[in-house]
Amino acid sequence: SRASAYNLSLHEQARGFSHKFNIPYSAVAYGSGSTDTVTVTLGALPANWVINNALVNVSTAFAGTTAFTVQVGTTTSSAAFVTATSVLSAGVIGSPLSATLTNATGTASANLVATFTNATGGSPSALTAGALDIYLNIVDLSGAGPKLG
After folding, report:
1. 3-class DSSP state for residue 147?
2. Is there a contact between 73 and 137 (Cβ–Cβ < 8 Å)?
3. Among candidates 85, 7, 86, 78, which has minimal Cα distance to 39?
4. Mean of the per-residue pLDDT values of the chain
């Protein structure tokens, strides 16, 4: 499934993020097992990239399962930007000042993903509520600056 993606305005970018991805519970309400994982594709990164800021805002707590987490990364490193954290409570995961968020770079295009994991009772298909926004600062380095070597 795919998230709704938004380029942020200059005013919003002043907060340190370039992109926002919205994921409602209906985008992850799949599967039937108590340990199911649902991956949401956020989009493709450019060939030469840096992500230096990541944050998840759970605007509506996810409900309908007893243990549900999200992590944000790429198809090659699924927790590169935000490590697995519960989304059963509303609030902010990570912050621009958090040392737990990993700066990441790449020299090949990769897909951005949010991976949702159900750990115990219920399944993602039983979700009845929940929404979150993922904020990332994505820097396209293609053609930026002088080439070394």
Report:
1. coil
2. no
3. 78
4. 83
